[in-house]
Amino acid sequence: MTYLLRDISTMTVRGLRLVSRDLDAMITAVVLPVIILLMFVLVFGGAMDTGTGYINYVTPGVILLAAGFGAASTAAAVEHDMSSGMVERLRSMPVTAWTVLSGHVVASLAKNLVTTAIVFGVSILMGFRPEASALEWLAAVGMILLFVGWITWLAALVGVLVRSPEAASGFSFFVMFLPYVSSAFVPVDTLPGWLRGFAEHQPVTPVIETVRNLLAGDVAGVADPVGVGVLAIVWCLGLGLVFATAAGLAFRARR
Q1: Distance between the two ends of the chain, CA-based, in angstroms?
Q2: Separation between Cα atoms, residue 55 and residue 59, nearest integer Å
């Protein structure tokens, strides 16, 4: 266990160094969500009827969108390790090679905390006023980390399976799609009936509603916030377990 923790910490430090050197990806992960926040609040916000100030409604969704963008770069980083010979080099050493995946995931969690804090700071400047207690803040951060965790393991799985940087970068389109078809920007009951069912039963919606309830109060009129929170946790833990297991098996199978 000591060797395992040492290997994971070494790979995490390496992952953080790679993140610090990839300024383009870091800037994109911060700037793009900020632009989306500005666009929706300043351009579309006046036309949105959510029953509350639109900045209070949309900020939690954009925060999760920022976390998703940060996780998307993990797919490209894992693909680079798989195709550059880095993993084969580890196999010849007394190192548990799959810990490279764990290192990327932990580094992504750290990176996303930074980008999320920046996006949140911009929303404060634009008028977002959270009503959360200290305990609710901790719960919201924990919920965001759970969300980042499962989507990063999915990104790691994609990075193991694909064979080119372009294919790995395509994961960002998936990340962008899910929050838009959820309650991130508009209430789901305003969507067409055929699309509403998907929006209500996909994993991003309960996560966004849970974070929104924790930070901004019941601005969306959720009937059962506790039940929604439990559903969000189940979604995140379940998907995280599935994708982490699949990524580990795919990693062992690829040579």
Answers
A1: 25
A2: 6
**Beta-carbon-side half-sphere exposure of residue 207 (alpha carbons within 13 Å):** 30
State the Cα angle at 196 between 194 and 200, rounded to 5°: 135
CA 194, 199, 200, 206: dihedral to nearest 10 degrees? 180
Cα 216 to Cα 123, 153, 193: the distances in Å are 12, 29, 28
Q: How far is CA 245 from CA 56, 147, 236, in A?
A: 37, 17, 14
Reference 207, options 129, 149, 158, 126; nearest CA is 149
Q: Which pLDDT value is given to residue 221?
A: 61
> pLDDT tens across 91-147, in order?
666 666 567 788 888 888 888 888 888 888 888 898 888 888 889 899 999 999 999
Residue 208 near residue 183 (C-beta atoms within 8 A): yes
Of 160, 161, 147, 183, the residue nearest 69 (C-alpha): 147
DSSP states of 97-146? TTHHHHHHHHHHHHHHHHHHHHHHHHHHHTT------HHHHHHHHHHHHH
Rounded CA gap, 255 and 49, in Å?
A: 53
Rounded Cα–Cα distance for residues 211 and 209 (Å): 6
196-226 pLDDT, tens per residue? Answer: 888 888 899 999 999 988 887 765 566 677 8
Whole-angstrom CA distances from 195 to 167, 173, 181, 205, 210 are 27, 18, 8, 13, 21
The answer to whether the Cα torsion of 90, 96, 101, 103 is positive or negative is negative
